[in-house]
Amino acid sequence: MAYDFSRRYFFFGSLLAGAIPSQGFGATPSLKAAGYKSPNEKLNIASIGAGGKASSDIDGCSHENIVALCDVDDERAAQKFKQYPNLPKYKDFRKMLDEKGKDIDAVIVTIPDFMHATAAIACMERGKHVYVQKPLVRTVAEARMMLEAANKYKVATQMGNQGYSNEGTRQVAEIVWNGEIGNVKEVHAWTDRPWWPQGLTAIPAPNEAPKTLDWDLWLGSAEKRPFTTGGEGYPNQYGNFYQPFNWRGFYDFGCGALGDMACHILGAPNMALKLGAPSSVECISKEGTSNFMFPKKSVIRFDFPQRGSMPPVSIFWHDGLKEAPKVAGVPEKELLGDLPSKPRQQGAARPPAPPPNGFVGRTFNWEQFQDAQSPEARSSGPNGSLFIGDKGMLTTGTYGEQTRLLPAQERMKDYKFPEPLLTRSPGHYRDWIRSCKGGDPSCSNFNTAVPFVEWMLLGVIALRVEGKLEWDAAKGKFTNNAEANKFLTPNFHKGFKLSV
């Protein structure tokens, strides 16, 4: 039986963030606040972070005016600095905001997780719109402060989880709401991350930081420690022991594989199942543990209570896998998650391009699915999710790619997706930029993103504390474990503070 959501709810409900107003961009009177810009004007955007992922975030917004760049590592940022030779460049974002604040409308924040809230709130309290990379923050307290700041200062926000803008993610929700797989009581989501080192048990001897890197600024609010390249075996493909990328594996800096991929892969379950807050979370398996790093491999279980007509559901997160987990009831040769690609023959026509609508990822295509069955293609995707209902199963890829019912060979050849109920995004960055100019809230604005991030961050804590953790979302604490509650708030080094 289909769930009892009315079409009117979908048209006016919160899940429709990203809709184009019928009278055009900026037509919502309540959003025409002080500082409103016509959609025909360009935003002045600064970026905190210029190398790595920040570089592609800047590219995604480059049709607006990029007016200032900030990065603590000149070498890491060199390519972007060269691309914008005439822009002012900074190492300290506080100095950039002080000196250039009057010229900045919006800010991209793409730096290590532990500094997201500090930088983003500094921007929001100055009235700057913010785009903040996933997983938004490192602790639950910071997540709630980010939401408070966004609403207090009335700025446009977006978390950098591109899958929330994807067509396939919306298709997952519409299939589930249409009742096609019945009541969903179990979901498995998986990733091949971590690619970077985790589970290490010793910190290498210190040595001098490169002259291009301001190590103290990189550490920011974290506890002070000496720089180390890592010694033998470093730099690896992700850099030195801590940076520019290996920080993800450290408790003090990142959120492990959950922080890197869960905001993408769990996006479809979060939207389709309207998950809200879990009642409990538990790490049920882990390998390669450390007292300062996340484990090499883990399985985490989140239990959610009934939500309206939707029954209780268990979400299983698997990381450190080479391919999809083995789940009872799935046909042995069924491909799950991201579909593999058969190598394209030289001179062969390229597969059809996605429509020019800003969607991230690929929608299901029968011919591409057939190609994926070929011997040249690999096995099940190393990232994805599987929904198990009492009437069937559904799988989708990292960002909601190639959403399909199972067994796909039988169900998808002539399958017609349900009529769209959710509005579609014009593209993840354009969605945010439109919101900055007075349009509807972006699809992953903080009112949507923070509740999602909060339950995901409970899994980060479960990796550090043994046993089943009972969660009271209203009180913002675990009811059965005082040790776990210590990890809900961050510790700040002298010279940094966080308040709204």
Give an overview of the whole structure:
- With 500 residues, the chain is of the alpha/beta class.
- The chain has two domains: 308 residues, Dihydrodipicolinate Reductase, domain 2 (2-Layer Sandwich), CATH 3.30.360; 170 residues, Rossmann fold.
- The protein contains 15 helices and 15 strands.
- The strands form two sheets. Strands 13-12-11-7-10-9-8-14-15 form a nine-stranded mixed beta sheet. Strands 3-2-1-4-5-6 form a six-stranded parallel beta sheet, with helices on both faces.
- A hairpin with an 8-residue loop joins strand 9 and strand 10.
- It is globular.
- The N terminus is likely disordered.
**Biggest beta sheet summary:** 9 strands, mixed
**Helix count, per DSSP?**
15
What structural class do helix, strand and pairing data support? alpha/beta
Mean pLDDT: 89
- Corresponding CATH superfamily of the largest domain: Dihydrodipicolinate Reductase, domain 2
Shape type = globular
Secondary-structure element pattern, one letter each: HEHEHEHEHEHEHEHHHEEEHEEEHHHEEH
Rg over CA atoms: 22 Å
- What is the helical fraction, as a range of percent? 25-40%
How many β-strand runs? 15
CATH class category of the largest domain = Alpha Beta
Quickly count the domains: 2
Unreliable spans? 1-34
**CATH topology type of the largest domain:** Dihydrodipicolinate Reductase, domain 2
The CATH level-2 architecture of the largest domain is identified as: 2-Layer Sandwich
Residues in β-strands, percent: 15-25%
Distance between the termini: 45 Å
Please give the order of strands in the largest beta sheet.
13-12-11-7-10-9-8-14-15
